[in-house]
């Protein structure tokens, strides 16, 4: 069995792609041409059972070599000395997100949101990042970072026509990112909110939108990250920064 191709964003309409602004990129990963799709949850050649859900009620017939080539977690698990792993139980994870990473691993396009700018889509890629990081699917993690950047920027860009994030929606996004301590997503979040002209006209604290400042007053970790970013951009002015 050959090694699956890495996750990617490209110009193919069949992949998790960066299309034009008029189109909605969708999610996929491993090259479908490799033929792994037919083995998705297939007993044929399966050598490991993955049980997931709060009670382990879902069952997936997996293939160790395919999973190990894409996930360091599974690679280490399946290569333990004197251990022949036949069953893996993932009880603590959202079953829908487990299905997403398994579908990606086998070259399927999961039934997931596109990268259009909506709260649902932004939260989806945050959850994808979280589970990809946990199970060390590095390519999917990279995919999630790019997807987060694209979908959040598009969501904020809708501010121009009055359809951007509300206070509650932006707060939800920010709290979700900080809750899972997603360093790379935090970096992307701060970069977007200090450079997107719809919420920060001149990359100064004073030019931050009322929406962003209001959330910063409520979320101290977010405020701290914003302050640190502006210190880097305008170090001589950082003492004057004030959310009040």
Automatic annotation (TrEMBL):
Residues that span the membrane, as ranges: none
InterPro entries: BTB-POZ/Galectin-3-binding, BTB/POZ_dom, SKP1/BTB/POZ_sf
Recorded superkingdom: Eukaryota
Pfam families tied to this protein: BTB (PF00651)
Protein name: BTB-POZ domain protein
């Amino acid at each position: 069995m050959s090694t699956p191709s890495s996750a990617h964003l490209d110009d193919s309409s069949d992949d998790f792609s960066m299309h034009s602004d008029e189109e909605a990129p969708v999610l996929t990963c491993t090259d479908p041409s490799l033929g792994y799709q037919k083995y998705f949850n297939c007993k044929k050649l399966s050598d490991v059972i993955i049980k997931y859900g709060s009670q382990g009620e879902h069952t997936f017939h997996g293939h160790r070599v395919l999973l190990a080539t894409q996930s360091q977690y599974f690679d280490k698990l399946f290569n333990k000395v004197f251990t022949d792993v036949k069953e893996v139980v993932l009880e603590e994870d959202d079953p829908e997100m487990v299905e997403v990473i398994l579908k990606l691993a086998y070259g399927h396009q999961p039934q997931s949101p596109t990268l259009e700018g909506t709260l649902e889509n932004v939260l989806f890629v945050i959850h994808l990042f979280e589970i990809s990081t946990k199970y060390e699917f590095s390519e999917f993690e990279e995919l999630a970072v790019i997807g987060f950047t694209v979908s959040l920027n598009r969501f904020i860009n809708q501010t121009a026509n009055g359809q951007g994030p509300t206070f509650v929606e932006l707060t939800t996004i920010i709290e979700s990112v900080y809750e899972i301590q997603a360093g790379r997503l935090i970096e992307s979040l701060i970069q977007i909110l200090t450079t997107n002209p719809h919420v920060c006209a001149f990359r100064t604290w004073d030019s931050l939108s009322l929406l962003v400042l209001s959330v910063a007053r409520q979320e101290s970790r977010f405020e701290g990250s914003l302050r640190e970013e502006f210190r880097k951009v305008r170090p001589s002015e950082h003492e004057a920064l004030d959310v009040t």
